[in-house]
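Batch manifest, entry 17 of 40.
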Amino acid sequence: MTTVTTVGVVGLGIMGSAISGHLLDAGFDVIGTDVSEEAMKTFDGRPAPDLATLARESAVVITSLPSAEAALQVCAELADSARGNVVVDTSTLSLAVKEQCRSLFEEAELLDCPISGTGAQAKVRDLVILGSGDEAAFATARPVLEAFARSVRHLGPFGDGTRMKLVANLLVSIHNASTAEAFALGAAAGLDPTVLYETVRDGAGGSVIFDKRGPLMVQRSYRPATARVSMFLKDVALVRELAESVGVPTPVLDATLPLYERAAATGWADADAAALLEVLEER
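Output type: C-alpha cells
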C-alpha cells in the first residue's frame, strides 16, 4: 500500500476547509485550490497554481465541489494530469454525474465517497465517510480519510456511497423540518426554547439533527450556515430522483420541500437549514 504524504484538496468551502485543516494537523503536506479568492486567503496549506500541478504532486486528491458542472470540469482537468493517483470525490451529486466523472479517468482511480455530517461536525472531525469503489484504491486513501473523519466505511462498488448518502439525506432533510416544527409548536405554546431543547434531546424525541440545529433555533442564529437551505434544495431533488428511479414514494420528504422552497424565496437561501423555523412561524 502506498504511503501518502501529499494530499490535494480541490474545493475549500465549508467542508473542504475543515478537511484541509485536519489533514495539516495530522502532518500531511496539503496543496489546495478554490475558485474563491476569499477561501484561498484563509487556506493554510500550499496554494496550487493550477489543477495539473495539484494532480502531479498529490498521491491522493480530495474533491469537495458544489455542483455537477464544477465536478465535471474539475474531473476533466484532473484526468489530464492524474497518473496513478487516487481521486476521492466527496461531493453530493447524482449517480449519473458520478459515473460521468469516473469515465474521464483512464490512468487514475476515482472513488465515490460522499460525507455524512454538517460543516460544524467537520470542524470537530465528527464525519462519516460513505466510501465506494475500488478496494485497493480505497485502502490507499483510508489513512487520509481517517485524518478528518471519525468513521470511514467502504460500502461496496462505485456508486453505493452516493446511494447511501441520498438515503441519509432523506432523513436529515426531514429531521430539519421536524425539529423546526417542534420548536415552532413549543414556542407558540409558551415553552422556553432552551428548556425545550434540553428536555427533548434527553428523551425519545431527540436526534443528531435536533442536537445540532436545536441550539441554532434557540439562538435564532442561522449565519454562517453549517449546511445551507440552498444545499438542501439540491439534495432533496437528488433524493427524489433516486426514489423515482427505483419506484419508491417519498411522501414525508415531499411534504418538507415547500418549506425549503419558501425559505429560499424569503431570503434564507444562504442561511442554515435551522431557518426553517422562521418559515413555519411565518405561516
